[in-house]
Design goal:
CATH architecture of the largest domain: 2-Layer Sandwich
Low-confidence stretches: none
Number of helices: 10
CATH topology of the largest domain: Endonuclease, Chain A
Largest sheet: 7 strands, mixed
Shape: elongated
Order of helices and strands: HHHEEHEHEHEEHEEEHHH
Structural class: alpha+beta
Number of strands: 9
Length: 255
């Protein structure tokens, strides 16, 4: 959100926060703004309601608009702007249904898209989440559960989720399948988003309504949850029947 200060205006306002009331002469010393520019900038700040002034004898004193008031005012203006843009832009946009595979880049954009999918979901939800993705989406996941949706989540990190059906993916298998940086959000009868990133890569997501691809994504999560339920029931009996390589994968769950 842009508050609208120029560099000199910002320096003057910050100086006033630290020390007020103050004269223009005093502010030229404490703010680092040249004396020849102080009064011009104070005049603009006063005209926009960002500083207050009073006369004391022959001197003009200034004080800042309290930060809480300043920020509340700009927050209200920002909300009005967003509301107007939302109504105007959404009136121009009509969402179409197609089976194309689309891509989107940038973590902020990917997470915003995933949030919208969860907010608009009205059927079963399937998720694969890292700790960072869980933190970013937790509020909307919890809201989906509260709406009565069946949320099925496969966690690849260490954080917990107390919502819906949850399983933790074996760490070793997550590494073998390269799931440690994967985000998957699939809505039954809707879109699926699959994203991946590393510390050195920009997050990139694939988004589609293609029913075949969406089914594969949902089945992957369902089968992983099913496997974890079987392991939870059979435990050591199951491990004894597995090949050593497969046994190591399940044993990594307990580390």
């Amino acid at each position: 959100m842009q508050i609208g200060f120029t560099e000199y205006e910002a320096k003057i306002y910050l100086a006033l926060l630290r020390d007020y009331p103050a004269t223009g002469y005093h502010l030229s010393k404490t703010s680092g703004v040249p004396r020849s520019m102080v009064y011009e900038n104070l005049s603009r700040l006063h005209a926009r309601g960002m500083v207050l002034e009073t006369m004391e004898g022959r001197a003009t004193l200034y004080r800042p608009l309290p930060p809480k008031t300043l920020l509340s005012r700009h927050e209200s203006e920002h909300e009005r702007l967003i509301s107007g843009l939302r109504n105007g832009l959404e009136a121009l946009y009509e969402e179409t249904q197609d089976d194309r595979v689309w891509s989107i880049e940038g973590r902020t954009s990917v997470i915003a898209y995933a949030n919208r999918m969860l907010q608009e979901a009205n059927s079963n939800v399937y998720l694969v989440l890292t700790d960072d993705d869980l933190a970013a989406l937790r509020e909307d996941i919890t809201a989906a559960c509260a709406r009565g949706l069946k949320v099925n989540t496969l966690l690849t990190g260490e954080d917990d989720l107390d919502c819906g059906r949850v399983a933790r993916h074996p760490p070793l298998e997550s590494e073998l399948q390269e799931l440690t940086g994967t985000l998957l959000v699939a809505i039954e009868h809707g879109e699926v988003l699959i994203a991946g990133s590393t510390a050195k890569q920009v997050m990139r997501a694939t988004i589609t309504r293609n029913p075949d691809l969406a089914l594969i994504a949902r089945q992957f999560v369902w089968m992983e949850l099913f496997t974890q339920r079987i392991y939870a029931r059979l435990g050591s009996d199951l491990l004894e029947r597995l090949e050593p390589e497969d046994r190591r994968i399940f044993e990594s769950l307990d580390r």
